[in-house]
What does this fold into?
Amino acid sequence: MTEIAALAVVGEDHRQTLHGGHFPDDEMAGRIDRLGRWYAALPPLTALHAHIADALSDLRDIKTLGHYWWASAGATLLIGATAALALLLVAAVL
It folds into this structure.
């Protein structure tokens, strides 16, 4: 049995056992940020900021929730600096 088939069997068993064969309403699977938000539900720029702030916060302590103020500020500065650099590069080419 392949891994995908085995995973489908486990998923079906879970659905039958816990949900009585029904598909739960509004159930999502995926990663959440340190503030408890689903990455998939965030707008792209907010998701990028959350990923960067999470990574910077993990440098200090991987077990806490929330972003450190400096991690959020660092993510904002990094995104802003990247946008400014892209704008300058486009202006230089034109």
Notes: Helices lie at 3-19, 44-60, 69-93. The longest helix spans residues 69-93. The radius of gyration is 20 Å.
